Amino acid sequence: MLIGLLLAAFAGMMVALQTIFNNRTDVHMGSWATTTWVLFMGFVASLACSLIFEGSRTFNLQQMQPWYWFSGLIGVGVVICLVLGIKILGPTFSVSVTLTAQLGFALLFDSLGWLGLEKVAFDWKQLAGVVVIVAGIYVFKFGGKKKSAEAVQSASAAN
Amino acid sequence: MFRGIVFAFLGGACITLQGVANSRISHDIGTWQAATVTQLTGFIMALMIYLFVRDGDLGGFRKVKPLYLAGGAFGSVIIFSEVTAIQTIGVTFTISALLIAQLLVTFLIDRFGWFGTTKSKMGAPQFIGLAMMIGGVLIMKL
Fold first, then answer.
1. What are the residue boundaries of the structural domains of chain A, listed by start?
2. ipTM passes above 0.90
3. CB contact under 8 A, A22 and B85
């Protein structure tokens, strides 16, 4: 349990850093050039890790199902949705809605056990927990923070 | 307004879907391989869109600090950690812990103005919000 939580928190920390770095890149390159660059870097780094940790098994892809090749497109859909959402709603509201959907769908995926996930029986405690977290997000986001800080947090390219 | 909510909502749904899909693919071909394949196809698609819309300048990278350009490489460890977390503790716990850490680190970076962000004052609402989010995870664990 603890190791899972720590890994998830580590991922969150890296997402925060990456979002800020991407924004710095976005200023000079625009959002699609940035997305292209970020995904290229991610691909190169993952390939390097795969070669280091998996060796020749890196190219052992018999288990690949055709749709796996297209899963990378989800990330591109994410960028389009986030950019448009922020353009229409502004960062505060848009990011809050996005975070709410992330948590809501997490609960849904666990409960339904889609895509070969281990099904986690739906539990009211989980729903209550998610509702409290979402309320926390809205307090955090709408609680009188300066605009400048929020612009940095928006427009995540890789996520 | 409504359109904006739909986009923001779909974006969030896709972020979670991405984690779950990566976890599924990792199960079959390995986690690093899954990160490699999904980012390769994402890269190709993004490049095609960029060549079509030409909204910016790929050559502009010369003006960006190397540290910031390297941020994309984080994608590999982000996917690896997220997938391993999903496989150990499930999607809800993973996304909850991930978001709390993400908001907390963003909060600290803004608070101290690191990486050239505009220093901004954070007040009680941000502390209360974070406390509520951590409380939410504890409720799930009860």
1. 2-153
2. yes
3. no
